[in-house]
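ugh finaly. both done.
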Amino acid sequence: MSATSLAPIQSTSKPPAILSLIGDTPLVEITRIDTGPCQLFVKLENQNPTGSIKDRVALAMVEAAERDGKLGPGGTIVEATAGNTGLGLALIAGAKGYRIILVIPDKMSQEKIAHVRALGAEVRLTRSDVTRGHPEYYQDVAARLAEEIPGAFYVNQFGNPANPLAHERGTGPEIWEQMRHDVDAVVVGVGSGGTLTGLSRFFSRVRPRRGVEMILADPTGSILYEYVKTGKLVEAGSWAVEGIGEDFIPDIADMSYVTDAFEIDDAESFSTARELLRLEGILGGSSTGTLVAAALRYCRQQTKRKRVVTFVADDGNKYLSKMFNDFWMADQGFGRRPTQGDLSDLISHRYEAGEVITVGPGDTLLTAVKRMRAAGVSQVPVVDENGRAIGILDESDVLVKVHHDPDHFHHEVKTAMTDRLETLSPSAKIKDLLEVFDRGRVAIVMDGNKFLGLITRSDLLSYLRRQMP
């Protein structure tokens, strides 16, 4: 029997031992990034089973629902989530035999969505550009589903008291012992508010006189920073960082504990997360960039030594297609690359930098298709041994060649490629580019005989978007 035909072996006698690894995460000091006069420590919540701090609250909320009779055998768990709570819930639902439906905003990374689906969750994607009260707002969609499905339990991490309790009883005591009862400040973000509220309650109890400062790290666009600073609720903007920042004050978020706040924009969050990996070897997610950036600002403002803690809230593997991807960063306007002031600035993948997926005229069509699939593109330039673009091959060219006989996949690229190329020099205008698109072609940019790269409609749209004020 082949390995692929083996049926999965299942046992319902007890949950998998992996659940016992939730919590008790390590804490390490930042040693290479400038922290001013302070010592900065990060708690590695990316070491939890699904790679985030949300495993703690997911387990706590499910177990509380079971104790309270809100979730019974064969029940359905429903939750609105930015991804990480959903991962924890999906792991636990699978371990305990529950059906789970997750409502996820469409800005979430594909890695997170693929992960929850692999764990067995049903995913409902909804809009991330609408606010509370809109019928497609993710929390409203989740609440509606829970009402419609018999035996469903709406977790509602934003209003569930088991959420902060998980941090009051678990995360807080862990930090206290790891820091040997010597903590001056903790930097947190607010998604649901559980971490802020739970830690604040714990530290106000164990250190009531001197106290532990609770510092808010908030993405630009979220309303929480302005609320802390002025007490006013302003209209929310948008931000790309995932998991923290809100357009309302969550029910369980006790903002009265916050002693100071820092507003961090997406660009600083992403660059800080990348620097954390490069200098400290710590692969954290986008919210980690926000937390560490705020912690560094706080630390560098101090005039005396303080011991500060923040979090690597989730694993950066979930963001490899986004903030750790140079092309995504450039496309979103976060990456800086030299500009020439001509059409070459529209090229997202530059040939001379080794960024263009190409094939040679003597490669097989099968090789070309594999490269296109791996790179997620539908066409590739054909480049000869001298670095000259001599053709272009797209999926339709391959289909024409192979649809009658799949053995033609072994034919050479030069037998199917288009050699009538639409080339433009870097000095050409956008008007010239549009004329190429009108003819249904992709523009090949050549500086003399030197191939620079391709410009697609998507490249032009990205360029124009970056020019917006």
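ok and the 2nd:
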Amino acid sequence: MTGRSMIKSAGIVTVLLFLSRLFGFAREAAIAARYGTSWLTDTYFAAASVPSILFLAFNDAIKTAFIPVYGDYHDKEEGNSLALAVFLLLGGILLAASILLVIFAPQVMRLVVPGYSGTQYDLSVTMARIMLPGLLFLGLAGLCSGVLHIKKNFIIPSLTAFPNNLVIIATVLLVGKRFGIMALVWATAVGFALQFLIQVPAVARHGIFAAQSVAWHHPAIKRMVILLLPVLIGSATVELKTLTDKIFGSFLTEQSISYLNYAAKIYSLPGGILVLALLTVLYPTMVELYYQRKMQEFKETVCQGTGLMIMLMFPIMVGMMVLSTPIVRLIYERAAFDAQATRNTAYALIFYSLGLLPSGVMLLFNRAFYSTKDTKTPMYFSFLTTLLNVFLNWLLMKPLAYGGLALGTSLSLYIGAVAMAAALHRKVGSFGVSRILDTLWKAGLASLLMGAAVWFTLPFLAGGGFLLQAVRLGMVIVLGALVYFLLAYFLKIRELDVALSMLKRRLGRG
């Protein structure tokens, strides 16, 4: 893929992911307005987290192990037979796993929410049994995305969340009041299935499901399994950090899990749009460069990707912390979600937001290791950050309540990101750490000055209806962005220079 096509693909994916996230926020806003924050929403979010976390672990592992291997065969005669074998094998494994999870749902939920008892615990088991079969569809959806990414189709995988969000929004608004929280549970289960079904036609067009044979014994299957197991363990450990907050949250006051969940949805927006769009395009590029042994270009891609991650995520991190209350108020505060819920959710969002920068950097370093077919090192660091997360949650839970759980998550990510940078340096040699540090301090200074400027606008954001709040908040965000990018320009952040040069060339050609 050329530089121009990579940028174009990243742009399209970014727009689609942004629209998808907007629908995602509409979904969360509908849930918040209908059900607010209560022990019922706590229970739903805890039960829904199990298939979602397992999917994220499987999804990351599948695509990470599948893309480098399948990429060597997808345009060869045996490519479709190989892909079909993987679909059938994975489908069988996920089906068996889903059945076992449904059977042992009481034990699973006892691990997830050990602080629950009585009616709340029983309801969590019922909800989990309805939603856990969705793991089959979510896992196959991840495999479909991997196939389509190899085929350079980044658009369809970016659309998977749209039908899921629409089904949940329609259900909550139309029948949520009549059927209560269980309407949301069933809608979530249907949404899981749709994420797979929407991609099936695009995969079928490549002839995979019409393959004349199934390559059960293809040597690539063994290679995938060897790569898959460490990645799966590592990815599951990464996602366990999310589950850790809910485990500890079940021992705190009612509504704590709801506050953490609503805050986490906002916190995940930049990662779900900018980070994912960047990694979606960078990862296949890194895989190809390493496969061709173009090590200097590989390291340059890692360096530039890290610099871009820092330049983009640092100001968003600071801005989200400063604007936490207006953001939560705009998205959630209506009907059953009151002003107190806004303040409590914003409190969690401040601490979660601290982890935006290291989270994006760690994900990029993970992909860099995976590109070299090293799946064990990221697994070790996943264990490290999860253990740190558990310890920090235990340490900070008492003084900061659920805010301590969010802060523990963020602090563990900083330690993990620094450790991974050192390990990657040993693995591939110098990849421009001094240049990355130069970008870091300049982006940090520009972001802090931007944050100070935005802080003075907070009185301007108080009060008003939804439209007025949205306009005011949009104006402040645009102001903050202008301040940041002007400072970045005067501080001569290299990544900004590269972006501006590409923009000028495009405008010149236009």
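summary for the 2nd one i guess: The radius of gyration is 22 Å.
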